[in-house]
Protein backbone atom coordinates (compact mmCIF):
# COMPACT_ATOMS: atom_id res chain seq x y z
CA UNK A 1 0.00 0.00 0.00
CA UNK A 2 1.21 3.50 -0.83
CA UNK A 3 0.68 5.58 2.29
CA UNK A 4 1.86 8.69 0.44
CA UNK A 5 -1.06 8.53 -2.01
CA UNK A 6 -3.64 11.30 -2.08
CA UNK A 7 -6.85 10.22 -0.40
CA UNK A 8 -9.79 12.41 -1.35
CA UNK A 9 -11.46 12.84 -4.71
CA UNK A 10 -10.30 15.78 -6.84
CA UNK A 11 -13.03 18.31 -6.07
CA UNK A 12 -13.48 17.41 -2.38
CA UNK A 13 -12.78 20.97 -1.18
CA UNK A 14 -14.12 22.88 -4.18
CA UNK A 15 -15.75 26.15 -3.08
CA UNK A 16 -14.12 26.12 0.37
CA UNK A 17 -12.16 29.13 1.56
CA UNK A 18 -9.53 28.12 4.08
CA UNK A 19 -7.09 30.01 6.29
CA UNK A 20 -3.93 28.18 7.37
CA UNK A 21 -1.92 30.04 10.01
CA UNK A 22 1.78 29.30 9.71
CA UNK A 23 1.07 28.10 6.18
CA UNK A 24 4.31 29.41 4.65
CA UNK A 25 6.45 26.40 5.49
CA UNK A 26 6.58 22.93 7.02
CA UNK A 27 3.41 20.98 7.70
CA UNK A 28 1.23 24.07 7.13
CA UNK A 29 2.61 24.33 3.61
CA UNK A 30 2.04 20.62 2.92
CA UNK A 31 -1.58 20.80 4.10
CA UNK A 32 -2.12 24.01 2.10
CA UNK A 33 -0.80 22.34 -1.06
CA UNK A 34 -3.24 19.45 -0.76
CA UNK A 35 -6.19 21.77 0.01
CA UNK A 36 -5.36 23.70 -3.18
CA UNK A 37 -5.14 20.46 -5.17
CA UNK A 38 -8.60 19.58 -3.90
CA UNK A 39 -10.06 22.83 -5.23
CA UNK A 40 -10.04 25.13 -2.16
CA UNK A 41 -8.89 28.74 -2.06
CA UNK A 42 -6.31 29.02 0.73
CA UNK A 43 -4.95 32.04 2.60
CA UNK A 44 -1.65 31.42 4.35
CA UNK A 45 -0.45 33.64 7.16
CA UNK A 46 2.74 34.21 9.15
CA UNK A 47 4.96 37.07 10.22
CA UNK A 48 7.20 36.80 7.16
CA UNK A 49 5.31 38.22 4.16
CA UNK A 50 8.15 37.68 1.68
CA UNK A 51 8.38 33.97 2.55
CA UNK A 52 4.60 33.68 2.33
CA UNK A 53 4.51 35.29 -1.11
CA UNK A 54 7.19 32.92 -2.39
CA UNK A 55 5.28 29.93 -1.03
CA UNK A 56 1.96 31.21 -2.43
CA UNK A 57 3.39 31.68 -5.96
CA UNK A 58 5.11 28.30 -5.82
CA UNK A 59 1.93 26.51 -4.74
CA UNK A 60 -0.27 28.37 -7.24
CA UNK A 61 2.10 27.33 -10.04
CA UNK A 62 2.15 23.71 -8.85
CA UNK A 63 -1.58 23.30 -8.21
CA UNK A 64 -3.36 25.90 -10.36
CA UNK A 65 -5.23 26.96 -7.21
CA UNK A 66 -5.66 30.36 -5.56
CA UNK A 67 -3.29 30.99 -2.64
CA UNK A 68 -3.33 34.32 -0.81
CA UNK A 69 -0.39 35.50 1.34
CA UNK A 70 -1.42 37.60 4.36
CA UNK A 71 1.07 38.87 6.96
CA UNK A 72 -0.21 38.30 10.49
CA UNK A 73 1.41 37.82 13.87
CA UNK A 74 -1.23 35.69 15.58
CA UNK A 75 -0.10 37.02 18.98
CA UNK A 76 -1.86 40.32 18.24
CA UNK A 77 -5.66 40.36 18.06
CA UNK A 78 -5.78 43.51 15.90
CA UNK A 79 -3.55 41.80 13.30
CA UNK A 80 -5.78 38.73 13.33
CA UNK A 81 -8.88 40.86 12.76
CA UNK A 82 -7.12 42.68 9.91
CA UNK A 83 -6.06 39.33 8.41
CA UNK A 84 -9.67 38.10 8.51
CA UNK A 85 -10.85 41.27 6.75
CA UNK A 86 -8.20 40.82 4.01
CA UNK A 87 -9.32 37.22 3.47
CA UNK A 88 -12.99 38.26 3.31
CA UNK A 89 -12.15 41.07 0.87
CA UNK A 90 -10.39 38.59 -1.44
CA UNK A 91 -12.48 35.42 -1.05
CA UNK A 92 -15.87 36.88 0.02
CA UNK A 93 -16.27 34.37 2.84
CA UNK A 94 -14.24 31.94 4.90
CA UNK A 95 -15.21 28.37 5.81
CA UNK A 96 -12.24 26.91 7.65
CA UNK A 97 -9.68 28.09 10.19
CA UNK A 98 -6.66 25.82 10.57
CA UNK A 99 -4.73 26.88 13.67
CA UNK A 100 -1.34 25.53 12.68
CA UNK A 101 1.05 28.37 13.63
CA UNK A 102 3.29 27.31 16.50
CA UNK A 103 6.54 28.07 18.23
CA UNK A 104 8.68 25.66 20.21
CA UNK A 105 12.22 24.87 21.30
CA UNK A 106 13.74 22.44 23.78
CA UNK A 107 15.06 23.75 27.09
CA UNK A 108 15.22 22.77 30.75
CA UNK A 109 12.36 24.84 32.17
CA UNK A 110 14.46 26.51 34.86
CA UNK A 111 16.68 28.00 32.13
CA UNK A 112 13.73 29.83 30.55
CA UNK A 113 13.17 33.54 31.14
CA UNK A 114 9.62 34.60 31.87
CA UNK A 115 9.59 36.14 28.40
CA UNK A 116 10.74 32.91 26.76
CA UNK A 117 7.87 30.99 28.41
CA UNK A 118 5.42 33.75 27.43
CA UNK A 119 6.64 33.75 23.83
CA UNK A 120 5.54 30.14 23.30
CA UNK A 121 2.28 30.57 25.23
CA UNK A 122 1.55 33.70 23.20
CA UNK A 123 2.13 32.07 19.81
CA UNK A 124 0.45 28.74 20.52
CA UNK A 125 -2.34 29.38 23.02
CA UNK A 126 -3.00 33.08 22.64
CA UNK A 127 -2.52 32.89 18.86
CA UNK A 128 -5.03 30.03 18.52
CA UNK A 129 -7.40 31.87 20.87
CA UNK A 130 -7.09 35.12 18.89
CA UNK A 131 -7.88 33.44 15.57
CA UNK A 132 -10.64 31.27 17.03
CA UNK A 133 -12.32 34.26 18.69
CA UNK A 134 -12.11 36.55 15.66
CA UNK A 135 -13.33 33.88 13.22
CA UNK A 136 -15.98 32.57 15.62
CA UNK A 137 -17.44 36.04 16.19
CA UNK A 138 -17.51 36.60 12.44
CA UNK A 139 -19.24 33.28 11.74
CA UNK A 140 -21.81 33.82 14.48
CA UNK A 141 -22.54 37.45 13.47
CA UNK A 142 -22.86 36.57 9.77
CA UNK A 143 -25.02 33.51 10.56
CA UNK A 144 -22.87 31.29 8.35
CA UNK A 145 -24.45 27.85 8.14
CA UNK A 146 -21.35 25.72 8.60
CA UNK A 147 -17.71 26.30 9.39
CA UNK A 148 -14.77 24.40 10.78
CA UNK A 149 -11.96 25.04 13.26
CA UNK A 150 -9.11 22.54 13.06
CA UNK A 151 -6.34 22.84 15.64
CA UNK A 152 -2.93 21.19 15.41
CA UNK A 153 -1.97 19.98 18.88
CA UNK A 154 0.40 17.21 19.96
CA UNK A 155 0.18 14.00 21.94
CA UNK A 156 1.94 15.65 24.89
CA UNK A 157 -1.07 17.99 25.18
CA UNK A 158 -2.50 15.28 27.47
CA UNK A 159 0.62 13.48 28.72
CA UNK A 160 2.74 16.59 29.22
CA UNK A 161 6.41 16.47 28.23
CA UNK A 162 9.65 17.42 29.90
CA UNK A 163 11.86 20.00 28.16
CA UNK A 164 9.01 21.53 26.13
CA UNK A 165 6.90 22.69 29.06
CA UNK A 166 5.62 25.99 27.59
CA UNK A 167 4.51 24.15 24.46
CA UNK A 168 2.87 21.35 26.46
CA UNK A 169 1.07 23.89 28.64
CA UNK A 170 -0.15 25.87 25.64
CA UNK A 171 -1.22 22.84 23.58
CA UNK A 172 -3.18 21.47 26.55
CA UNK A 173 -5.07 24.77 26.56
CA UNK A 174 -5.73 24.53 22.82
CA UNK A 175 -7.08 21.01 23.28
CA UNK A 176 -9.39 22.18 26.09
CA UNK A 177 -10.59 25.02 23.86
CA UNK A 178 -11.23 22.57 21.00
CA UNK A 179 -13.44 20.35 23.13
CA UNK A 180 -15.20 23.21 24.91
CA UNK A 181 -16.17 25.06 21.74
CA UNK A 182 -17.20 21.84 20.00
CA UNK A 183 -20.13 21.85 22.41
CA UNK A 184 -20.70 25.57 22.86
CA UNK A 185 -20.52 26.62 19.19
CA UNK A 186 -22.14 23.57 17.58
CA UNK A 187 -25.44 25.48 17.68
CA UNK A 188 -23.88 27.99 15.27
CA UNK A 189 -22.80 25.26 12.87
CA UNK A 190 -19.15 25.53 13.92
CA UNK A 191 -17.28 22.22 14.33
CA UNK A 192 -14.05 22.14 16.35
CA UNK A 193 -11.57 19.30 16.06
CA UNK A 194 -7.86 18.70 16.49
CA UNK A 195 -5.07 16.55 15.11
CA UNK A 196 -2.22 15.38 17.33
CA UNK A 197 0.62 14.55 14.95
CA UNK A 198 3.57 12.44 16.04
CA UNK A 199 6.98 12.86 14.38
CA UNK A 200 6.59 14.41 10.93
CA UNK A 201 10.00 15.83 10.01
CA UNK A 202 10.14 19.50 9.02
CA UNK A 203 13.21 21.69 8.90
CA UNK A 204 11.79 24.33 11.26
CA UNK A 205 10.75 21.94 14.01
CA UNK A 206 13.70 19.54 13.68
CA UNK A 207 16.26 22.38 13.92
CA UNK A 208 14.61 23.58 17.15
CA UNK A 209 13.71 20.24 18.70
CA UNK A 210 16.64 18.07 17.58
CA UNK A 211 19.49 20.51 16.86
CA UNK A 212 22.95 19.37 15.72
CA UNK A 213 23.64 15.66 16.02
CA UNK A 214 20.69 15.12 18.39
CA UNK A 215 18.88 14.02 15.21
CA UNK A 216 21.21 11.04 15.00
CA UNK A 217 21.37 10.35 18.72
CA UNK A 218 17.59 10.37 19.19
CA UNK A 219 16.16 8.73 16.10
CA UNK A 220 12.45 9.43 16.62
CA UNK A 221 11.49 6.65 14.20
CA UNK A 222 12.76 4.18 16.82
CA UNK A 223 10.15 5.44 19.31
CA UNK A 224 7.34 4.58 16.92
CA UNK A 225 5.89 1.04 16.92
CA UNK A 226 5.51 1.31 13.14
CA UNK A 227 9.26 2.09 13.00
CA UNK A 228 9.03 5.15 10.80
CA UNK A 229 8.23 8.84 10.92
CA UNK A 230 5.12 10.23 9.25
CA UNK A 231 4.90 11.36 5.65
CA UNK A 232 3.47 14.87 5.13
CA UNK A 233 0.81 13.55 2.75
CA UNK A 234 -0.56 11.32 5.51
CA UNK A 235 -1.20 14.39 7.66
CA UNK A 236 -2.56 16.35 4.69
CA UNK A 237 -5.00 13.50 3.92
CA UNK A 238 -6.37 13.55 7.48
CA UNK A 239 -6.55 17.35 7.63
CA UNK A 240 -8.36 17.52 4.28
CA UNK A 241 -10.92 14.98 5.48
CA UNK A 242 -11.41 16.88 8.75
CA UNK A 243 -12.05 20.23 7.04
CA UNK A 244 -14.26 18.69 4.35
CA UNK A 245 -17.99 18.01 4.50
CA UNK A 246 -17.22 14.27 4.65
CA UNK A 247 -16.46 14.76 8.35
CA UNK A 248 -19.68 16.69 9.06
CA UNK A 249 -20.46 14.49 12.11
CA UNK A 250 -16.98 14.75 13.62
CA UNK A 251 -16.96 17.35 16.41
CA UNK A 252 -14.83 17.76 19.54
CA UNK A 253 -12.44 15.00 18.52
CA UNK A 254 -8.67 14.87 18.63
CA UNK A 255 -7.24 12.36 16.19
CA UNK A 256 -3.76 11.09 16.94
CA UNK A 257 -1.58 10.35 13.91
CA UNK A 258 1.66 9.06 15.35
CA UNK A 259 2.14 5.40 14.40
CA UNK A 260 1.37 4.48 18.04
CA UNK A 261 4.27 6.55 19.43
CA UNK A 262 2.70 7.96 22.58
CA UNK A 263 1.07 4.69 23.61
CA UNK A 264 4.41 2.93 23.32
CA UNK A 265 5.78 5.33 25.92
CA UNK A 266 2.71 4.88 28.13
CA UNK A 267 2.20 1.10 28.43
CA UNK A 268 3.93 -0.24 31.55
CA UNK A 269 5.28 -3.40 29.90
CA UNK A 270 5.97 -2.04 26.43
CA UNK A 271 9.69 -2.22 27.15
CA UNK A 272 9.41 -6.02 26.89
CA UNK A 273 9.69 -5.48 23.16
CA UNK A 274 13.44 -5.65 23.81
CA UNK A 275 13.15 -9.35 24.72
CA UNK A 276 14.29 -11.55 21.83
CA UNK A 277 11.79 -14.02 20.38
CA UNK A 278 13.82 -17.06 21.48
CA UNK A 279 13.69 -16.02 25.16
CA UNK A 280 9.91 -16.29 25.38
CA UNK A 281 9.95 -20.15 25.61
CA UNK A 282 12.20 -19.91 28.63
CA UNK A 283 10.17 -17.12 30.24
CA UNK A 284 6.92 -19.02 29.71
CA UNK A 285 8.42 -22.09 31.34
CA UNK A 286 9.59 -20.03 34.32
CA UNK A 287 6.15 -18.44 34.77
CA UNK A 288 4.32 -21.78 34.50
CA UNK A 289 6.74 -23.39 36.96
CA UNK A 290 5.64 -20.83 39.56
CA UNK A 291 2.08 -22.24 39.43
CA UNK A 292 3.22 -25.48 41.06
CA UNK A 293 5.56 -23.99 43.66
N1 LIG B 1 16.41 28.59 24.91
C1 LIG B 1 16.05 29.47 25.87
N2 LIG B 1 15.41 30.67 25.60
C2 LIG B 1 15.16 30.94 24.31
C3 LIG B 1 15.49 30.05 23.25
C4 LIG B 1 16.17 28.84 23.61
N3 LIG B 1 16.53 27.95 22.68
N4 LIG B 1 15.07 30.61 22.07
C5 LIG B 1 14.51 31.80 22.39
N5 LIG B 1 14.55 31.99 23.73
C6 LIG B 1 14.05 33.15 24.45
C7 LIG B 1 14.75 34.43 24.05
O1 LIG B 1 15.99 34.56 24.73
C8 LIG B 1 13.73 35.47 24.48
O2 LIG B 1 13.73 35.65 25.88
P1 LIG B 1 14.45 36.95 26.56
O3 LIG B 1 13.84 38.15 25.93
O4 LIG B 1 14.14 36.82 28.01
O5 LIG B 1 15.91 36.79 26.26
C9 LIG B 1 12.41 34.79 24.19
O6 LIG B 1 12.68 33.38 24.13
C10 LIG B 1 11.82 35.21 22.87
O7 LIG B 1 12.75 34.97 21.85
P2 LIG B 1 12.71 35.79 20.48
O8 LIG B 1 13.73 35.20 19.56
O9 LIG B 1 12.76 37.26 20.76
O10 LIG B 1 11.20 35.48 20.01
P3 LIG B 1 10.63 35.42 18.56
O11 LIG B 1 9.20 35.77 18.66
O12 LIG B 1 11.44 36.14 17.57
O13 LIG B 1 10.80 33.86 18.20
C11 LIG B 1 10.57 31.53 18.78
C12 LIG B 1 9.92 32.90 18.68
C13 LIG B 1 11.66 31.59 19.83
C14 LIG B 1 9.52 30.51 19.16
C15 LIG B 1 11.24 31.13 17.43
O14 LIG B 1 11.83 29.88 17.54
C16 LIG B 1 10.25 31.13 16.30
O15 LIG B 1 9.96 32.16 15.70
N6 LIG B 1 9.64 29.95 16.01
C17 LIG B 1 8.56 29.83 15.05
C18 LIG B 1 8.58 28.54 14.32
C19 LIG B 1 8.72 27.34 15.19
O16 LIG B 1 9.07 27.40 16.35
N7 LIG B 1 8.49 26.21 14.59
C20 LIG B 1 8.60 24.97 15.26
C21 LIG B 1 7.30 24.51 15.77
S1 LIG B 1 7.42 22.90 16.43
Can you give a write-up of this model?
This protein is an alpha/beta fold. It has one domain (17-292): NAD(P)-binding Rossmann-like Domain (Rossmann fold). 46% of the residues lie in helices and 13% in strands. It is built from eleven helices and seven strands. Strands 3-2-1-4-5-6-7 form a seven-stranded parallel β-sheet, with helices on both faces. α1 (26-37) links the parallel β1 (17-21) and β2. The longest helix is centred in the middle third of the chain and has 28 residues, at 114-141. The protein is globular and about 80 Å long. It starts with 16 loop residues before the first strand and ends with a helix. The relative contact order is 0.13. The model has no long low-confidence stretch (mean pLDDT 96). The chain binds coenzyme A. Coenzyme A (COA) binds at residues 102-105, 107, 111-113, 115-116, 119, 204-205, 208. This is SDR family oxidoreductase. InterPro entries: DECR2-like (IPR045017), NAD(P)-bd_dom_sf (IPR036291), SDR_fam (IPR002347). Belongs to the short-chain dehydrogenases/reductases (SDR) family.
Amino acid sequence: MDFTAKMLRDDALKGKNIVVTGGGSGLGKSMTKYFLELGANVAITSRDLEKLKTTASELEAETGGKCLAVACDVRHYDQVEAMLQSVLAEFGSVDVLLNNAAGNFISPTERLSANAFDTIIDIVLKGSKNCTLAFGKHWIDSKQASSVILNIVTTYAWTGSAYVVPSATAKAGVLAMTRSLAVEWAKYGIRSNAIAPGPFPTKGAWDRLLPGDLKDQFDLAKKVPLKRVGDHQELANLAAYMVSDFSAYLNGEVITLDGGEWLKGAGQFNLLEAIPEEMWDMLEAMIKAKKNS
